[in-house]
Amino acid sequence: PPALKRIAELSGAGVSIENSFLKISSTDPVKAARAAKYARLVYSARQGWAKVTERDDDMDVAFLEIPADLVPVVMGRNGDNLLKTGSDTGTICFMVDDGTSMTPSTKIDWNVGSTPAPKPAEEEWISVGKRVEFRKAGDVRSSMWLEGVVIAEVQAGIAKVQVGASAEFSVEATKVRPMFVVGEEVEFRSGEAWLAGVVASRSLEGRYVVNGAEGSGVVSSEVEWPNLREKPAEEPAVEKEEAPPEAPEEPEPERLPRLAIFGELRGRSLAFLSFMALLEKKRPGYLVEASTTCTWGARRADDDVGVKMSELPGDLVPKVIGKKGAMRRKLADASGCGMEIVDNPTAVFVVGPAGNRALALALIDLLQPDAKDIQDLPEGAQGFCESLRIADSRVGFLLSGTPSVLSTVEDAEGVKVCVAQVKEEPAAAAESAPAEEGADGAPEAAAEVEGGDGGEAEAPAKEDESWGNWKGGGDWNWKDAWKDKPAERMLWILGASPRGRAVAKRRITALVEEREAGFVEGVQPALAEGEGLGEDIVELPEAAQERLKAAQRSVEAATGCAVECAGSLAFFVGTGAE
Questions:
Q1: For 251-265, what is the mean pLDDT?
Q2: Which of 32, 100, 123, 293 is the most buried (most CB within 10 A)?
Q3: What whole-number distance in Å separates Cα of residue 216 and Cα of residue 399?
Q4: Cα separation of 51 and 215, whole Å?
Q5: How do residues 550-559 score in pLDDT, each as one tens digit?
Q6: Smallest Cα–Cα separation from 259: which of 272, 270, 273, 269?
Q7: What is the C-alpha to C-alpha distance for residues 191 and 141, in angstroms, rounded to an integer?
Q8: Per-residue pLDDT tens for 75-84?
Q9: Would you state the pLDDT for residue 464?
Q10: Which tens digit of pLDDT belongs to each residue from 345-395?
């Protein structure tokens, strides 16, 4: 897409050109500042190379070292590959063309994810919790400096300051200055030297009268910031030990060219995998080399995006990839992760938050041949699942067609649906257990059959074909006794998005009900509580159902709420407002 559109999508601000000027419109100053930064980088870039410094790292950039001989592979002709990868992953990518010292690269631990790079330190006086003064935007009166407390780290050159109990302001850091109180010990500049002193008075214009400390040689001086600063804390006295002889300095290794990837954390991660997969094709084994370095850029301490490597059996690789990569894309969408598969060794690399990485690997495990008999949800899928119990006879309908009914729902809602065995609860198994068992473990008498006449059914002879239904351990059934109660399966609807899972569940409900009426019998109308994501189930007359079905898509588009009709019920999935 055009550069302006990409900048707007990436920053979240409106960007346009009017009368040869770049116009940026946003109520969020951080978004506006990022848009200006991206525009500057795009404008100054030459064939994919741009001047990037550590000041451009505003928790929105990752750096990747590239071997010099592989730089043309990464860039493509005239930087075309940088543009394509950026477009595909929602990022903007540049090769760094200046020698400015950047945040040190961090070795990747493929099993736990990379270590977050520290955010470049701001000046101490503008850190969180410090008292500062700032001038309101557009106010040129020197007396209108407001006092407040910094409540968040500076982002994109914007400081967040709280005034009073609740008022918050977003202010350019260049329009903020530190505030000192009367009696505070400080240091002030006198000529070329910094001297100790104590604040004696302060004017509204920001000028301070400072009394010099004893021995400073200055009785009193009128100063203003930046010729005034906090007095540094005194370090405890430490006995000096005789320093060992200095070892000769080793020459620093030659710095490799670096790639800068700007965007949201997931987009940066996907772009990282895309470039690494490209390098892997040119140099097999490169992806797992210990020398591979990457800096995810400055980020919050609670961000746990990283890379996980898991080796794959050779026969599982085609299933994970799917036809033309369809299964890999489906697994990536459902887990919210990026995935790449390499041949040396045969392994999958998954990049994303820790929980999502565990979900991605659980989804891959469910593609194993023996997963069809699974009854317990894999550990990594806990917390990412909606379940739906369905008759075994209806499963064939969901798997029919090309693409299948289930596949269509999966693609639309970003989930992966797995058909699992129903796990009987211990209580249910006890109720269905026979009164006595023969010596060989076969049932001798039947329990009362649900839906029967209350009489006892005869136990099947050992040579009867229904003997194959006996599973042992009390979990058993007979063909004749259970012919009115169809076998059931459990649908696990797996995905990182709670909304996607909830919507997919009701899409499947409506499709099955339309195919074979009666599926929603027993479902009771109910309204969700709270304003978060929930589901309202409402009973509607037939005429109202038909009108709602006719307007379903337009209602969904207008409200953002998913709507499905099944039987006499209408299901509404969304937030309280939706």
A1: 79
A2: 32
A3: 86
A4: 48
A5: 999 999 999 9
A6: 272
A7: 29
A8: 988 888 999 9
A9: 36
A10: 788 888 888 888 899 999 998 888 766 678 888 888 988 999 999 888 888
Residue whose tokens read 């997963």: 371
DSSP state of 330: H
Q: Which residue in the block uniquely carries the two structure tokens 């026979």?
A: 434
Count of beta carbons in the 10 Å neighbourhood of residue 38? 23
Question: Can you tell me whether residue 157 is helix, strand or coil?
Answer: coil
pLDDT band of 152, cuts 50, 70, 90: confident
The helix or strand, by DSSP H or E, that contains position 538, with its residue range, turns out to be strand 534-539
Do residues 257 and 68 touch, judged by C-beta distance below 8 A?
yes
Q: Is 57 left (phi over 0), alpha (psi -120 to 50) or beta?
A: beta
37 closest CA partner among 70, 60, 18, 67: 60
The torsion of the CA quartet 359, 362, 363, 367, rounded to 10 degrees, works out to 170
Burial of 417 (0-12, 13-18, 19+ CB in 10 A): buried
**For residue range 464-511, what is the model confidence (pLDDT) as tens digits?**
333 333 333 333 333 343 344 458 888 999 999 999 999 999 999 999
| Most confident listed range (14-18, 255-259, 475-479, 485-489) | 14-18
Taking 90 as the threshold, does the pLDDT of residue 241 lie above it? no
SS3 sequence of 489-537: EEEEEECCCHHHHHHHHHHHHHHHHHHCCCCCCCCCCECCCCCCCEEEE
| Comparison of pLDDT for 5 and 293, the residue scoring more | 5
Sheet holding 106-107: strands in order across?
A: 49-50, 92-96, 258-262, 61-65, 293-295, 106-107
* Two structure tokens written together for 473: 């351990």
Q: Which residue is it, tokens 């940088």? A: 82
Distances (CA, A) of 533 to 416, 537, 539: 20, 14, 20
Residue owning tokens 């009900």: 513
Asked if 127 contacts 178 with a C-beta cutoff of 8 angstroms, the reply is no
At 161, give phi and psi (nearest 5°).
Answer: -125, 135
First to last CA, the chain: 32
The helix/strand/coil state of 404 is coil
- Rg of the chain in Å (alpha carbons): 33
Helices 552-559 and 542-550 pack at an angle, to 10 degrees, of 70
CB proximity list for 311: less than 8 A, separation 6 or greater: 345, 346, 347
Of the ranges 146-155, 194-203, 296-305, 443-452, the best mean pLDDT one:
194-203
Say how many C-beta atoms besides its own lie within 10 A of residue 382's C-beta: 12
Query: Token pair of 467, please?
Result: 């003997």
